[in-house]
Amino acid sequence: MARGNSPTVRRRRLASELRRLREAARLTIDEVGEKLECSASKISRIETGHVGVTPRDVRDMLELYALPEDQREVLVQLAREARKKGWWHAYNEVFTGAFVGLESDASSLRAYQALLVPGLLQTEDYTRAVIKAIAPDHSDEIVERRVTARQSRQKLLTDPQPPEYWVIMDEAVLNRTVGGKEVMRGQLLRLLETAEMPHVTLQVLPFDAGAHAGMEGPFMILGFPEQADPDVVYVENTTAGSYLEEPSDVHRYTLMFDHLRATALKPADTLLMVKQAAERLT
Fold first, then answer.
1. What top-level class would CATH report for the domain 95-118+154-280?
2. Which end of the chain is more exposed for a tag (fewer CB within 10 A), N or C?
3. Is 103 helix (H, G, I), strand (E, B) or coil?
4. CATH 3.30.870.10 domain residues, the chain
5. By 3-state DSSP, what share of the chain in percent is helix, strand and coil, each rounded to 5?
Protein backbone atom coordinates (compact mmCIF):
# COMPACT_ATOMS: atom_id res chain seq x y z
CA MET A 1 0.00 0.00 0.00
CA ALA A 2 1.32 3.40 -0.96
CA ARG A 3 2.23 5.86 1.74
CA GLY A 4 -0.49 8.40 2.37
CA ASN A 5 -3.25 5.77 2.24
CA SER A 6 -2.90 4.11 5.63
CA PRO A 7 -6.26 2.69 6.77
CA THR A 8 -5.21 3.36 10.37
CA VAL A 9 -4.89 7.08 9.72
CA ARG A 10 -8.16 7.08 7.77
CA ARG A 11 -9.95 5.42 10.70
CA ARG A 12 -8.48 7.96 13.12
CA ARG A 13 -9.61 10.86 10.92
CA LEU A 14 -13.09 9.39 10.51
CA ALA A 15 -13.41 8.83 14.26
CA SER A 16 -12.50 12.43 14.98
CA GLU A 17 -15.01 13.75 12.43
CA LEU A 18 -17.83 11.54 13.71
CA ARG A 19 -17.19 12.74 17.25
CA ARG A 20 -17.20 16.38 16.10
CA LEU A 21 -20.48 15.94 14.22
CA ARG A 22 -22.16 14.24 17.18
CA GLU A 23 -21.15 17.06 19.48
CA ALA A 24 -22.35 19.62 16.93
CA ALA A 25 -25.71 17.82 16.86
CA ARG A 26 -25.82 18.13 20.68
CA LEU A 27 -26.23 14.39 21.19
CA THR A 28 -24.62 12.25 23.86
CA ILE A 29 -23.05 8.87 23.15
CA ASP A 30 -25.88 7.21 25.07
CA GLU A 31 -28.50 9.01 22.98
CA VAL A 32 -26.83 7.95 19.74
CA GLY A 33 -26.64 4.35 20.89
CA GLU A 34 -30.31 4.38 21.84
CA LYS A 35 -31.46 5.92 18.54
CA LEU A 36 -29.33 3.56 16.43
CA GLU A 37 -30.24 0.57 18.62
CA CYS A 38 -26.69 -0.33 19.54
CA SER A 39 -24.58 -0.06 22.68
CA ALA A 40 -23.09 3.23 23.80
CA SER A 41 -19.76 1.44 24.15
CA LYS A 42 -19.78 0.69 20.42
CA ILE A 43 -20.23 4.39 19.60
CA SER A 44 -17.48 5.25 22.06
CA ARG A 45 -15.06 2.74 20.50
CA ILE A 46 -15.86 4.08 17.02
CA GLU A 47 -15.18 7.65 18.11
CA THR A 48 -11.85 6.72 19.68
CA GLY A 49 -10.79 4.71 16.63
CA HIS A 50 -10.47 1.47 18.58
CA VAL A 51 -12.84 -0.37 16.23
CA GLY A 52 -13.69 -0.03 12.59
CA VAL A 53 -17.06 1.16 11.35
CA THR A 54 -19.01 -0.01 8.35
CA PRO A 55 -20.13 2.42 5.61
CA ARG A 56 -23.74 1.55 6.56
CA ASP A 57 -23.17 2.55 10.19
CA VAL A 58 -21.57 5.80 9.05
CA ARG A 59 -24.60 6.59 6.85
CA ASP A 60 -26.93 5.97 9.79
CA MET A 61 -24.87 8.18 12.09
CA LEU A 62 -24.62 11.01 9.56
CA GLU A 63 -28.36 10.89 8.95
CA LEU A 64 -28.95 11.13 12.68
CA TYR A 65 -26.56 14.09 12.86
CA ALA A 66 -28.51 15.78 10.03
CA LEU A 67 -25.45 16.18 7.83
CA PRO A 68 -26.51 17.35 4.34
CA GLU A 69 -26.74 14.51 1.84
CA ASP A 70 -24.12 16.00 -0.48
CA GLN A 71 -21.54 15.96 2.34
CA ARG A 72 -22.12 12.41 3.49
CA GLU A 73 -20.44 10.51 0.67
CA VAL A 74 -16.99 11.86 1.53
CA LEU A 75 -17.15 10.31 5.00
CA VAL A 76 -18.75 7.11 3.73
CA GLN A 77 -15.85 6.73 1.28
CA LEU A 78 -13.45 7.39 4.16
CA ALA A 79 -15.11 4.51 6.02
CA ARG A 80 -14.51 2.23 3.02
CA GLU A 81 -10.83 3.21 2.89
CA ALA A 82 -10.46 2.72 6.65
CA ARG A 83 -11.58 -0.91 6.31
CA LYS A 84 -8.81 -1.87 3.89
CA LYS A 85 -5.85 -3.87 5.13
CA GLY A 86 -2.31 -2.49 5.26
CA TRP A 87 0.83 -4.58 4.67
CA TRP A 88 1.28 -5.01 8.42
CA HIS A 89 -1.89 -7.11 8.68
CA ALA A 90 0.23 -10.01 7.42
CA TYR A 91 2.02 -9.73 10.79
CA ASN A 92 -1.02 -9.37 13.05
CA GLU A 93 0.57 -11.53 15.73
CA VAL A 94 3.58 -9.19 15.83
CA PHE A 95 2.15 -5.72 15.33
CA THR A 96 -0.64 -5.16 17.83
CA GLY A 97 -2.37 -1.82 18.15
CA ALA A 98 -2.29 1.08 15.73
CA PHE A 99 1.35 2.12 15.92
CA VAL A 100 2.71 0.68 12.66
CA GLY A 101 -0.31 1.91 10.72
CA LEU A 102 0.22 5.44 12.02
CA GLU A 103 3.97 5.25 11.46
CA SER A 104 3.53 4.15 7.85
CA ASP A 105 1.64 7.34 6.99
CA ALA A 106 3.61 9.85 9.07
CA SER A 107 5.52 12.68 7.40
CA SER A 108 7.77 13.16 10.43
CA LEU A 109 8.98 10.90 13.24
CA ARG A 110 10.76 12.31 16.29
CA ALA A 111 11.98 9.59 18.63
CA TYR A 112 13.85 9.33 21.91
CA GLN A 113 15.24 5.97 22.98
CA ALA A 114 17.06 5.31 26.23
CA LEU A 115 17.97 1.62 26.11
CA LEU A 116 17.86 0.27 22.56
CA VAL A 117 18.62 1.23 19.01
CA PRO A 118 15.20 2.23 17.57
CA GLY A 119 13.49 -0.51 15.58
CA LEU A 120 13.73 1.32 12.25
CA LEU A 121 17.54 1.38 12.57
CA GLN A 122 18.22 -2.15 13.87
CA THR A 123 20.17 -4.81 12.00
CA GLU A 124 18.69 -8.29 11.78
CA ASP A 125 21.26 -9.72 14.21
CA TYR A 126 20.68 -6.92 16.73
CA THR A 127 16.91 -7.40 16.52
CA ARG A 128 17.28 -11.14 16.97
CA ALA A 129 19.48 -10.69 20.06
CA VAL A 130 17.06 -8.19 21.60
CA ILE A 131 14.01 -10.40 21.06
CA LYS A 132 15.75 -13.46 22.51
CA ALA A 133 16.76 -11.45 25.58
CA ILE A 134 13.33 -9.93 26.14
CA ALA A 135 11.34 -13.11 25.38
CA PRO A 136 13.59 -16.15 26.05
CA ASP A 137 10.56 -18.46 25.88
CA HIS A 138 9.88 -17.65 22.21
CA SER A 139 10.58 -20.42 19.73
CA ASP A 140 13.07 -19.84 16.93
CA GLU A 141 10.15 -19.66 14.50
CA ILE A 142 8.47 -16.86 16.42
CA VAL A 143 11.75 -14.97 16.79
CA GLU A 144 12.43 -15.12 13.05
CA ARG A 145 8.87 -14.04 12.31
CA ARG A 146 9.41 -10.95 14.46
CA VAL A 147 12.77 -10.23 12.85
CA THR A 148 11.20 -10.41 9.37
CA ALA A 149 8.34 -8.13 10.44
CA ARG A 150 10.76 -5.51 11.73
CA GLN A 151 12.78 -5.64 8.52
CA SER A 152 9.59 -5.05 6.53
CA ARG A 153 8.81 -2.07 8.72
CA GLN A 154 12.23 -0.58 7.94
CA LYS A 155 11.35 -0.21 4.25
CA LEU A 156 9.71 3.02 5.34
CA LEU A 157 13.09 4.75 5.39
CA THR A 158 13.88 3.81 1.78
CA ASP A 159 10.46 4.76 0.43
CA PRO A 160 10.51 7.28 -2.46
CA GLN A 161 8.82 9.72 -0.06
CA PRO A 162 10.21 8.80 3.37
CA PRO A 163 9.32 10.62 6.57
CA GLU A 164 11.73 13.03 8.23
CA TYR A 165 13.24 10.86 10.94
CA TRP A 166 14.99 12.51 13.91
CA VAL A 167 16.37 10.16 16.56
CA ILE A 168 17.93 10.94 19.93
CA MET A 169 19.53 8.01 21.77
CA ASP A 170 21.10 7.85 25.19
CA GLU A 171 24.85 7.13 25.20
CA ALA A 172 24.03 3.90 27.04
CA VAL A 173 22.66 2.50 23.78
CA LEU A 174 26.13 2.68 22.22
CA ASN A 175 27.88 1.12 25.20
CA ARG A 176 25.61 -1.86 25.79
CA THR A 177 27.08 -4.72 23.75
CA VAL A 178 23.98 -6.48 22.45
CA GLY A 179 24.54 -9.88 20.80
CA GLY A 180 28.30 -9.81 21.23
CA LYS A 181 31.03 -7.58 19.84
CA GLU A 182 30.58 -8.53 16.19
CA VAL A 183 26.81 -7.99 16.22
CA MET A 184 27.14 -4.70 18.07
CA ARG A 185 29.84 -3.41 15.75
CA GLY A 186 27.64 -4.23 12.78
CA GLN A 187 24.82 -2.31 14.43
CA LEU A 188 26.98 0.76 15.02
CA LEU A 189 28.13 0.71 11.40
CA ARG A 190 24.47 0.56 10.35
CA LEU A 191 23.82 3.70 12.37
CA LEU A 192 26.64 5.49 10.55
CA GLU A 193 25.28 4.32 7.21
CA THR A 194 21.69 5.32 7.95
CA ALA A 195 22.71 8.73 9.30
CA GLU A 196 23.99 9.59 5.82
CA MET A 197 20.42 9.58 4.48
CA PRO A 198 19.27 13.18 3.96
CA HIS A 199 16.00 12.59 5.82
CA VAL A 200 17.60 10.99 8.90
CA THR A 201 19.14 12.93 11.79
CA LEU A 202 20.88 11.13 14.62
CA GLN A 203 21.93 12.58 17.98
CA VAL A 204 23.34 10.98 21.13
CA LEU A 205 22.59 12.28 24.60
CA PRO A 206 25.92 11.94 26.47
CA PHE A 207 26.27 10.70 30.03
CA ASP A 208 27.74 14.02 31.13
CA ALA A 209 24.45 15.74 30.26
CA GLY A 210 23.26 14.54 33.66
CA ALA A 211 19.54 14.59 34.43
CA HIS A 212 17.46 15.35 31.37
CA ALA A 213 13.89 15.73 30.11
CA GLY A 214 13.57 12.18 28.76
CA MET A 215 14.30 10.23 31.91
CA GLU A 216 10.71 8.99 32.18
CA GLY A 217 11.24 6.71 29.18
CA PRO A 218 11.21 6.39 25.38
CA PHE A 219 8.61 8.04 23.17
CA MET A 220 7.92 9.01 19.58
CA ILE A 221 6.05 12.00 18.15
CA LEU A 222 4.33 11.21 14.86
CA GLY A 223 3.45 14.09 12.55
CA PHE A 224 1.15 13.85 9.53
CA PRO A 225 0.93 15.80 6.27
CA GLU A 226 -2.81 16.52 6.47
CA GLN A 227 -4.11 19.19 8.82
CA ALA A 228 -7.05 16.91 9.56
CA ASP A 229 -4.63 14.44 11.18
CA PRO A 230 -3.10 16.06 14.28
CA ASP A 231 0.19 14.86 15.76
CA VAL A 232 0.13 11.93 18.16
CA VAL A 233 2.64 10.81 20.80
CA TYR A 234 3.40 7.12 21.26
CA VAL A 235 4.81 6.27 24.69
CA GLU A 236 6.42 2.86 25.08
CA ASN A 237 6.20 0.60 28.11
CA THR A 238 7.14 -2.99 28.86
CA THR A 239 3.87 -4.61 27.75
CA ALA A 240 2.31 -2.31 25.17
CA GLY A 241 2.17 1.39 24.44
CA SER A 242 -0.15 4.33 24.90
CA TYR A 243 -1.22 7.06 22.49
CA LEU A 244 -1.52 10.68 23.56
CA GLU A 245 -3.56 12.91 21.28
CA GLU A 246 -4.64 15.78 23.52
CA PRO A 247 -2.98 19.00 22.28
CA SER A 248 -1.60 19.69 25.76
CA ASP A 249 0.12 16.27 25.88
CA VAL A 250 1.53 16.61 22.37
CA HIS A 251 2.81 20.09 23.23
CA ARG A 252 4.47 18.79 26.42
CA TYR A 253 6.32 16.03 24.56
CA THR A 254 7.27 18.39 21.76
CA LEU A 255 8.92 20.69 24.30
CA MET A 256 10.56 17.66 25.90
CA PHE A 257 12.02 16.59 22.56
CA ASP A 258 13.25 20.13 21.89
CA HIS A 259 15.06 20.14 25.24
CA LEU A 260 16.64 16.77 24.46
CA ARG A 261 17.69 17.98 21.02
CA ALA A 262 19.36 21.04 22.54
CA THR A 263 21.14 18.96 25.20
CA ALA A 264 22.34 16.16 22.92
CA LEU A 265 25.54 16.17 20.89
CA LYS A 266 25.41 17.79 17.48
CA PRO A 267 24.89 15.31 14.62
CA ALA A 268 28.54 15.55 13.50
CA ASP A 269 29.81 14.93 17.04
CA THR A 270 27.33 12.10 17.39
CA LEU A 271 28.71 10.31 14.34
CA LEU A 272 32.21 10.68 15.76
CA MET A 273 31.10 9.07 19.02
CA VAL A 274 29.38 6.21 17.16
CA LYS A 275 32.48 5.67 15.04
CA GLN A 276 34.71 5.55 18.11
CA ALA A 277 32.37 3.05 19.79
CA ALA A 278 32.57 0.83 16.68
CA GLU A 279 36.37 1.05 16.63
CA ARG A 280 36.54 -0.11 20.24
CA LEU A 281 34.79 -3.31 19.18
CA THR A 282 37.20 -4.04 16.32
1. alpha beta
2. C
3. helix
4. 95-118+154-280
5. 55, 10, 35
